[in-house]
Amino acid sequence: MKKSLLALALLSSLTPQCALAQQTDKQSHNYQHQIDIALGTYSDDFGDGIWDLGYRYYFTPVSVEHGPYALNGVLAQSSNIGARYAQTDVINESKVYHVDGTYVFDSKWFIGAMYAKSDAGSQYFGLDKNLDRYQFSLGYYFNDTSEISIYYTNNSGSDSNTLSNQAPVNGNDYLYKVAFDYDAKTYGVKARSFIAMESFTGIELTGAWQYTQADDKDNFYHYLGEDQALALSQYVIDSNVHFINIAADFYLTKSWSVGGQYSWSKRDIKTSTPKTLDGINYQNRIDDSDSSYIINTAYWWQFSDSFAATASVAKPFNDDGDSPDGVFFRLGVNARF
């Protein structure tokens, strides 16, 4: 669980926004389309990692002169739409399909919507454990480089499957029926601000708090013929998680950044088996908190007006010393036109 928290925080911190760009002689280039592809992996296991491909369109041209290159799209405060495909093996083998859009009003208020579908590739007893995720957000740009927003996310999925044993019992087929039902609701607030500096390019500060309430039920039935009363096993997880994340990236030049991130989560997780073969309701509860830290550095080589190469390195830690042994690398290419 703690490794999962570190991995999720790490992946979110190494999106293209935290890289920097190398300055070129041609700084008047504007763009409305952006395509990027990247591969990230841990040094202690190059077989586990994530690669993703993304595209974004901005309704109005984005200037590369407004802040660091990596933050041009964010600081443009322009309406935009985008899509992304990712395949990851960090926590489990899964694929994610993602589309989102943001509309900015003249008053500097903005609204956003997102839909993502995860394909975990799990075929346990033939179950399709894919999840659908929806997010809606409302925010405000209170100056040219700062924003705050609130958001609501729903992540859910369900499926069932029936299998028949090929060896009949007393002339009746021995049937298995499995099902799962998952639903999670998240409420959050996040803020971001870029502060330009005279001695170096600037500092980006970000912070977020969110609360997630999730219900996860797994059912397992087995019975003979039409008699469905033979047995039912049920496993239920009820979780409540508070999550806080703060980060600072120092843009030392338009080519190089160093930064740090702190994440804290408080978990109240209850597990129970209200229906079992022996009729006993087994229960367990986890009530604890975890902290994790990440230090990172990033570089963006803008070798032409339209193309760039990016690299990021990050090292995670946590408060009990149970941290991944290696560091996380991310390499990518970017096209803007």
Describe this structure in words.
This protein has two helices and 14 strands, in the order H-E-E-H-E-E-E-E-E-E-E-E-E-E-E-E. The chain has a 14-stranded antiparallel β-barrel with strand order 1-2-3-4-5-6-7-8-9-10-11-12-13-14. The protein is elongated. The longest helix is centred in the first third of the chain and has 12 residues. It is mainly beta and 337 residues long. It is 5% helix and 67% strand. Strand 1 and strand 2 form a beta hairpin.
Distance between the termini: 41 Å
Category by helix and strand content: mainly beta
Spatial order of the strands in the main sheet? 1-2-3-4-5-6-7-8-9-10-11-12-13-14
Major β-sheet, in short?
A: 14 strands, antiparallel, barrel
Using the alpha-carbon principal axes, give the shape: elongated
In terms of quaternary structure, the protein is single chain
> Roughly what percent helix?
under 10%
Count every beta strand, where a strand is a DSSP E run of 2 or more residues.
Answer: 14
Strand percentage lies at over 45%
| Low-confidence regions | 1-27
What is the number of helical segments per DSSP (H or I, 4+ residues)? Answer: 2
Organism: Shewanella fidelis
Signal peptide: 1-21
Keywords: Signal
Protein name: Porin
Please sum up the structure shown.
This is Porin. By secondary structure, the chain is mainly beta. A 14-stranded antiparallel barrel has the order 1-2-3-4-5-6-7-8-9-10-11-12-13-14.
Quickly list its features:
about 325 residues; mainly beta; 14-stranded antiparallel beta barrel; 2 helices; elongated; disordered N terminus; signal; Porin_7; Porin
